[in-house]
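So, can you check what follows?
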Amino acid sequence: MTSHPSLADAVYAAVPEGLVTEETANAVVSRFPDAVRSVAGWIRDAAAMRDWHRVDRLVNLATPLGAPGLSAVLQEVLEAGGGPVQEDLVDALGEIRAVEAAGLIYRVVRRSLVSDAPAYRLSQKAILALADLETNEARGYLREMTTDTWPDVIRWNAAGALCIEDELGFDEDAVPG
């Protein structure tokens, strides 16, 4: 008896590693039309199994498609810790302009400050995601991140996202990192 792959497995196999453009995502969906409405659930299932490689690849497919339910699933996975793909989840929330996720993105940065040091890659992705949201709430979080309680590299990047470096007196020659 031969085992047939599930639709989720077939779609996963069709998604290339790395960045998935809108054109590539649409090509996958043209082969598997049910994928767009199912991918958010597949992400949830993969996260429950802690299959972070699968989560990452499916998020890369779902993001340019703006798949239904994607924002809610990304937020669930981030709330639960997000495994090693937190940066990609935060990035995707910004890309799909999930304005309801601003508070969560901020909390993820706060809880990850120690583990994110010294490069602060997650923090930098979060700053870009908050800037992409273009809401007063997101700008408020960015403004908070410019205060003296935050590491200098985060303060500088948040100020840059808000275009207020000069207002805050940041010296470009003294920029950390």
Summary: The longest helix spans residues 102-116. The chain has a mean pLDDT of 92.
